[in-house]
Amino acid sequence: MKFEAYPIQFNPILKDKIWGGDKLKTVFHKPIKTETTGESWEISGVKGDISEVSNGIYAGKNLNELLDLFPEAVLGKAVHEKFGTDFPLLFKFIDAKEDLSIQVHPNDELAQKRHHSFGKTEMWYIMQADPGSRLIVGFKEDSNASEYIQNLENKTLLSILDEVPVGEGDAFFLETGTIHAIGAGIVLAEIQQTSDITYRIYDWDRVDAEGKGRELHTELALEAMNYNKTATQRKYSTAKNQSNSIVDCKYFTTNIIPLDGKLEVVRSTDSFTVYMCVDGNFELRWDNGAQSYGKGDTILIPAYLDHYTLEGNASLLEIYIS
């Protein structure tokens, strides 16, 4: 069977969360069913949550089926050689109406040993933030396990954590082991390794309708934690109609394209490319067609679609593996 290369979209996988809201509907027009929808998984290869194609000739096939049929054409030569038919990244939009739990993610080695999973290196791009919104990202100063446990037990953990006020366009890179929480009033785009391993440390003493709190992973988090102060916020340029680097790590590269007019794109066939439209509207044209997109759309460009044109007024996150 010959592969037909076109921009692929997927049905969002919507996740109801105790801290979620309704901005995924009001801002992105996602088909949420509850007023506490916290996440829209845009492209996922996580077991049990495999994305389904929503457009074109492959509509109805899930991501795994597509990769089984056309691994190199979709993923790219180098990505296929490294990951086989496993899709290596997870793309989300997150609406935090309330604070998320304070948590940490394990690195590859620990995640493989404990869960037979990838670790969870991730980044955030702030799309909207209510006045006074903040993130918790790492320790204020270098710490240690003893100080951390003492403050956790005394419910004074916030006193040693770094709280950073945020606004639209701020970007953060969180290596595994970084203690963190997304604060209330924030909508963001998240790019991460394909993993759903989270160690929840503190959940603000919240309980559900039955009076039960969510499970905490205090002991698991101890070995996963980086107790040193870390720089997480990323500064980046915003030159129009070109790719401006935000994060370049071994797991993914993320650029921002402030699109104002037309941009011709020529990519290698070593990696797929994903565009997350974080503002505005644009059209993508390729040899066999054209399609319009808007804020909240996520598009997978297969590696074999290596030449196309972007045109419009939009801000695009451009993600690939280098």
TrEMBL record:
<feature type="binding site">
    <location>
        <position position="122"/>
    </location>
    <ligand>
        <name>Zn(2+)</name>
    </ligand>
</feature>
<keyword id="KW-0479">Metal-binding</keyword>
<feature type="binding site">
    <location>
        <position position="105"/>
    </location>
    <ligand>
        <name>Zn(2+)</name>
    </ligand>
</feature>
<feature type="domain" description="Mannose-6-phosphate isomerase cupin">
    <location>
        <begin position="246"/>
        <end position="320"/>
    </location>
</feature>
<dbReference type="Pfam" id="PF20511">
    <property type="entry name" value="PMI_typeI_cat"/>
</dbReference>
<dbReference type="InterPro" id="IPR051804">
    <property type="entry name" value="Carb_Metab_Reg_Kinase/Isom"/>
</dbReference>
<dbReference type="GO" id="GO:0004476">
    <property type="term" value="F:mannose-6-phosphate isomerase activity"/>
</dbReference>
<dbReference type="GO" id="GO:0008270">
    <property type="term" value="F:zinc ion binding"/>
</dbReference>
<dbReference type="InterPro" id="IPR011051">
    <property type="entry name" value="RmlC_Cupin_sf"/>
</dbReference>
<dbReference type="InterPro" id="IPR046457">
    <property type="entry name" value="PMI_typeI_cat"/>
</dbReference>
<dbReference type="InterPro" id="IPR014628">
    <property type="entry name" value="Man6P_isomerase_Firm_short"/>
</dbReference>
<dbReference type="Pfam" id="PF21621">
    <property type="entry name" value="MPI_cupin_dom"/>
</dbReference>
<feature type="binding site">
    <location>
        <position position="180"/>
    </location>
    <ligand>
        <name>Zn(2+)</name>
    </ligand>
</feature>
<keyword id="KW-0862">Zinc</keyword>
<dbReference type="InterPro" id="IPR049071">
    <property type="entry name" value="MPI_cupin_dom"/>
</dbReference>
<feature type="active site">
    <location>
        <position position="200"/>
    </location>
</feature>
<keyword id="KW-0413">Isomerase</keyword>
<dbReference type="GO" id="GO:0005975">
    <property type="term" value="P:carbohydrate metabolic process"/>
</dbReference>
<protein>
    <recommendedName>
        <fullName>Phosphohexomutase</fullName>
    </recommendedName>
</protein>
<feature type="domain" description="Phosphomannose isomerase type I catalytic">
    <location>
        <begin position="11"/>
        <end position="116"/>
    </location>
</feature>
<dbReference type="InterPro" id="IPR014710">
    <property type="entry name" value="RmlC-like_jellyroll"/>
</dbReference>
